[in-house]
Structure formats: structure tokens, C-alpha cells
Amino acid sequence: xxxxxxxxxxxxxxxxxxxxxxxxxxxxxxxxxxxxxxxxxxxxxxxxxxxxxxxxxxxxxxxxxxxxxxxxxxxxxxxxxxxxxxxxxxxxxxxxxxxxxxxxxxxxxxxxxxxxxxxxxxxx
Length: 124
Description:
By secondary structure, this protein is mainly beta. The protein is 9% helix and 21% strand.
């Protein structure tokens, strides 16, 4: 199914959140998309926080397929790199989520985009 088409509730696996919000609940909500599924975050949330408020991982390892959820949470470890649907790389722990942002947690279906990425590993 193309990533921009919504999945029916029955087709979406149940996702348990890694994070639970305890404070700062009064900020304005915004919608964004994880793997084509609409999700809600609050203004000022990082992508890492926004994603982990919805599920237990921010991405699947491109080497092993193992779930990754960030490690240092301060931008030093390289574990939270994600991509948007258009292939742009972003560091989830230091990028603010924006309304309508579309992020993906796995590279499947993005082979052409990934193949076009710079070979030197520099983020775009």
C-alpha cells in the first residue's frame, strides 16, 4: 500500500508507547504522520518525543532490522537518524516535529530514495 494512503484500524498493529507525557500538556497539538498513519504531537516536541509518544521505536536498523529508539537523546550517538517520506534525513532527537511532517520508521519502499542519497553518509 502506498505510504500516503491511510490504513484501516484493523490493518494497523497495536503500538505501545515508549514515552508517557507527564508535564507540558497545555501546548498546542499538531498532526504529523508515522509510516503514513496520522499521529498527534504537541508544539515544541522533538520528532523523537513525538514518535515515542506513539510507539516503542523511532526506526528499524538498516543493517539488522532491529528496533532503535534513540540512545543518548542529545544528538551525539547517531542512533535516532530517521527519514521523511521524501528521503530527507533528520536527527529525531534534535529536530522539532512540524504540522503535516511525514516520517518513516523503515526503509522498505524507499529503495530508490536511499539509492539516490549521497554515498559519503552526510545527512542531506
